Amino acid sequence: MLSPKPASSPYITPEGHKLLSDELSYLWKVKRPQVTQAVSEAAAMGDRSENAEYIYGKKQLRQIDSRIRFLSKRLDALQVVDKFPDDQTRIYFGAWVELEDEEGAAYRYRIVGPDESDAERGFISIDSPMAKALMHKSEGDEITVKRPGGTATFFLKSIAYQN
User: Fold this and answer.
1) pTM for this structure?
2) pLDDT score, position 2
3) pLDDT band at 51 (very low <50, low <70, confident <90, very high)
4) Cα 103-130-105 angle, rounded to 5 deg
5) What integer is the mean pLDDT of 48-57?
6) What stretches of 12-79 show up as alpha helix (H) in DSSP?
7) How far is CA 101 from CA 119, 127, 155, 159, 163, in A?
8) Residue 151: how many CB atoms within 10 A of its CB?
9) Based on the structure, what is the number of domains in the chain?
10) Is residue 58, in this structure, part of any structural domain at all?
11) Strand 142-147 relative to strand 79-80: parallel, antiparallel, unpaired?
């Protein structure tokens, strides 16, 4: 039996909240009506049991409805963090951080909510091991992160709060 997935943090940036809200609006107002119309047209063609367009359309509707339910519940549960902390010399939610590893390679990350993490953009979830190791640190601190491949050490070069 699988253990339940740990609850993710309810925090999100204003930008992340807008993206999820826009996705919900698009699915509800644009995509779902289009697919509903396509299913209706496919159903009018006759035998539904062998109608690929009808079967695929119904599957698409289930997926859209599932995503709409998820987004609706998740948006209700999220807390938008739209203020930066008073102490901007330490790392908190929303911070951009610049790190350097032991070999001198530089990394730039922003600590965001789990719903908006994106490795390509350097957005790491506040629930990730890296973000947990970074929280409350100051410039010049050494950070040790336990990763699947072993521990890694980083030097905290800078902290910034901007959008």
Assistant:
1) 0.83
2) 52
3) confident
4) 20
5) 86
6) 14-26, 32-43, 52-77
7) 17, 21, 6, 16, 25
8) 9
9) 2
10) yes
11) unpaired
